[in-house]
Amino acid sequence: MTVVIPHGISEPREGGVHLLRFELPLPHPVVRVWAAVATPEGLPTWLAAADVLEPRVGGVVVLRWLNADDEGRQTVAEGQVTAWDMERVVEYTVSVHGRLRFHLEHAAKGGTTLRFTHELQGTDPQRLDALAGWHMHFELLADALDGQPTTDWSTWTPARWQELREQYA
């Protein structure tokens, strides 16, 4: 089942902050989407390894992105779980990326609407980078939910990301 990921939007805020928003209609039950966005087993199939994830408000979270740059470096984001409402809302506030919020709602026919927001402090090029990056990761999330998780991050290339970034520009 192929899910088309709608383009995200961004809203400027004061002080160089951008609020990025995605609304994803997913044909999977909330419990399955929750497992993908809020568990150490689900997160690496589309986003990042949860080296530490304490499932509670105030819990520690350490996310390590599994795709690497040209020198083999991986992004590591450390922080706290700043919202936790089982099978409804999880929010991670982490170094590097800021506030990442996943809000799940039951949708028609047993599906889920995932509303994602990312509060990003940065420049306009960083905003475009993040929009393209999230869009690509949400494509990977849709694949993972369809039973095709990303297991070999060494094959990740920036070609799709670059294509998406050009679309957002």
Description of the molecule:
The protein has helices spanning about 30-40, 125-145, 160-169; strands at about 10, 15-25, 50-55, 60-65, 75-85, 90-95, 100-105, 110-120. It is globular, with a radius of gyration of 15 Å. The protein has three helices and eight strands. The protein has an eight-stranded antiparallel β-sheet with strand order 1-2-8-7-6-5-4-3, covered by helices on one side. The chain has one domain: Alpha-D-Glucose-1,6-Bisphosphate, Chain A, domain 4 (2-Layer Sandwich), CATH 3.30.530.20. With about 170 residues, it is of the alpha+beta class. Strand 5 and strand 6 form a beta hairpin. Helix 2 (about 125-145) packs across helix 3 (about 160-169). It starts with 8 loop residues before the first strand and ends with a helix.
Concise account of the structure shown:
The chain has a single domain (18-168), classed as Alpha-D-Glucose-1,6-Bisphosphate, Chain A, domain 4 (2-Layer Sandwich), CATH 3.30.530.20. 24% of the residues lie in helices and 36% in strands. The protein has helices at 30-38, 124-145, 159-168, and strands spanning 9-12, 17-26, 48-53, 60-65, 76-85, 89-94, 98-106, 112-121.
Question: Features of this protein?
Answer:
169 residues, alpha+beta, single chain, 36% strand, Alpha-D-Glucose-1,6-Bisphosphate, Chain A, domain 4, 24% helix
How much is the average pLDDT? 94
**Unreliable sequence segments:** none
The quaternary organization reads as single chain
Return the CATH topology. Answer: Alpha-D-Glucose-1,6-Bisphosphate, Chain A, domain 4
Q: Give the class-level CATH name.
A: Alpha Beta
Q: Span from first to last CA? A: 29 Å
Relative helix content? 10-25%
